[in-house]
Amino acid sequence: MSSDPTGSTPSSEPAVSVQEFRTALRRWLQDTLEPDDPVARGVRRFRALTPADLTAERGLQARLHAAGYAGLTVPTEYGGRGLTAAHQRVFDEETSSYRLPDFGVASMTTALCLRTMLAHSAPDMLRRHVPRILRGEELWAQFFSETEAGSDLAGVRTRATRRDDGWVLDGGKVWSSGAQYCDFGMCLTRTNWKVAKHRGLTWFAVPLDAPGVRIEPIHQIGGEAEFCQEFFDGVVIDDGERIGEVDDGWTVARTVLVLERGFAEEGATVPSLAGEHTDLVALVRASGRAQDPVVRQELATVLTHDYAVAHLEQWIAEYMAGSGGLDAGVAAYAALAAGTFTPERAKAVMRIVGRDAVLWPAGDTERGAPALEYLNSRRKAIAGGTNEVQRNGIGEQVLGLPREPSFDSRMPFDEVLRAARNWSGRVG
């Protein structure tokens, strides 16, 4: 690893063709990493991370960075390689069967937080944080939703108040994936209460070991604790930790929403269809019902839906790459498809596996995977915006349908809160 405290690459590397990159990467993977498979990834997805797990995953991330395979499209001045989206696609293809760094539920760091920061943060902040992210030294969570601001994300009430050259945060967030394992949170706050709710928002990087920060895991129906609730009591933040402009946080939020739905400006990483569904086929064979026509029909339906959703995601990724911009309305199609078909897929798998889906030996996480997926299957219909929110986005932003009536979209937010306190629910 570089001895430069910023972690930046000393100079831009010579241009490397995609084929040269593929050849070198393939050789490095064969010599360095262990094989992996989709079933093992699924089991790890919801595991509780021990300190030893975190140390091991951070070490693997540092190893990836030292070899030049972390932050492929990140500019070299921030410690990345400065390569193209085509190089990233090659990396995703070649590494699909290898064991990569896997922080499980604390997976927002590079997929969402890093990309948002690169799009909106000041260079000094990027030089401070991005190299550490790429080396696995900083894990980040997203602090977006609140107990009274879920689907209406512009209604957040966590307050950031100016003080000298910094800010003081008070309030709280909820449903933050993996926050208990992270070092920083990317937090949406209210900085101006005298303007309409979309206009008075600002994002900050919050160090999670700062005085006044309290994190409490939320235990879910499947027994895991993927999500957390956070409380901020007089947390002091330097203005240099601001992400984007003051009171322009909704612009940043739109980037976050697109990335939450799996898409970046350069396109998205869409899983290859080759070799997919092996988990379902293996389940059918293990059940001894591979020749049962009802089970075969269930399997065919699931595979058809998987195929359609994967191609929809692929089309959206190509559209994003060709249009050169983020389009939350178009991205909502993928989120709605996942929110619609994931629960149906989970129910079909339960029907295929039968009683073995609800009864398995203690400690056998692979045998318990279908039940866990079923219990968590509604998450896609809620997280990142409910199915209803996605439909609204498609209707208004893509199809050009009129917006639903809203009394608070132009009203100063403090007046909205006063009106809500006095609202009786009676009309006329």
TrEMBL record:
Residues 247-398 form the Acyl-CoA dehydrogenase/oxidase C-terminal domain. Residues 143-228 form the Acyl-CoA oxidase/dehydrogenase middle domain. Belongs to the acyl-CoA dehydrogenase family. Its cofactor is FAD. Keywords: FAD, Flavoprotein, Oxidoreductase. It comes from Pseudonocardia ailaonensis. This is Acyl-CoA dehydrogenase family protein. Residues 19-137 form the Acyl-CoA dehydrogenase/oxidase N-terminal domain. The keyword Cell inner membrane does not apply. InterPro entries: Acyl-CoA_Oxase/DH_mid-dom (IPR006091), Acyl-CoA_Oxase/DH_mid-dom_sf (IPR046373), AcylCo_DH-like_C (IPR036250), AcylCo_DH/oxidase_C (IPR009075), AcylCoA_DH/ox_N (IPR013786), AcylCoA_DH/ox_N_sf (IPR037069), AcylCoA_DH/oxidase_NM_dom_sf (IPR009100), Mycobact_Acyl-CoA_DH (IPR052161). The keyword Heme does not apply. It holds the Pfam family Acyl-CoA_dh_M.
